[in-house]
């Protein structure tokens, strides 16, 4: 049997020899095939889920859940805490006869809970089941992982799959303790961030109707949408795109072979839908100015019939002719194109 704090040894020894429930559930591939995770889940006083990485001062219900296990024979978690008050502690054993609590320590900023199966070998659990529930007061804003620090000693924090593998065989956190009976695949997350990690931007890149990029009607295909110089999406033939970007992203740039690149802004806090990003697409010389050099190229694209150059089709009618020329001349100027600012939100 693993070494247990003397405070609990008598109670735990009693639990391990009783057998109230004769069921057994083993990991499909045996001990060592599982990857258990202990995770803290938070609810505020209104019952709403809270972010563990930034809790505001107040009262919370904290569930220490266990995932990645089909069944458990023994469970122990040990931690030190500071900056919080743990007002009460309950366990799965309060409502599940398949477990007995071998002891709870909650004093002098030290926390220990020991649980043991009353089954012949183990007790089944649901994935993500709460093994321990605490009523906690957070005294100041902060990250719960800084307040509640798990002890990675394999004798103090561990999960056992079945008594059939022996009372010492356990999943532990410390990779330095890997042995034939210690499986260092137990992990924990005491401050999960449950917020949305990405936002989605959908819209269309269009042919600008003026040099300022104030409006556009015709979509342009093959235009890249970039974040920090990396392509994250490309427009379809109708100019539409969908891009998933990290939450907090504040700028995106659209770029292409003949367009004048345009950088647009967004708040980065929520999804953005159906945006229109007009761009000047007739900078064939790629020098930021639409002038005689580009005019010479444009003339070469006229009246090419079925082989028309798509980036000279200013009105999107599938042909490059005098109608496009009438649009093109409005972009010719000696000055570089400077877009108006555009926010997608």
Keywords:
345 residues; 10% helix; 23 strands; disordered N terminus; 6-stranded mixed sheet; elongated; 7-stranded mixed sheet; mainly beta
Walkthrough of the structure:
- The chain has helices spanning 6-17, 144-147, 292-301, 322-328; strands at 37-43, 49-50, 58-67, 71-72, 74-81, 84-91, 99-107, 110-117, 123-124, 129-138, 148-150, 158-160, 170-172, 182-183, 187-189, 198-208, 216-219, 224-227, 230-234, 240-246, 251-255, 262-265, 272-279.
- It is mostly beta strands and 345 residues long.
- The strands form 5 sheets. Strands 5, 7, 8, 11, 12, 13 and 14 form a 7-stranded mixed beta sheet that branches. Strands 1, 2, 3, 6, 10 and 15 form a 6-stranded mixed beta sheet that branches.
- β7 and β8 (110-117) form a beta hairpin.
- The two termini are 60 Å apart.
- The model is unreliable at 3-27 (pLDDT under 50).
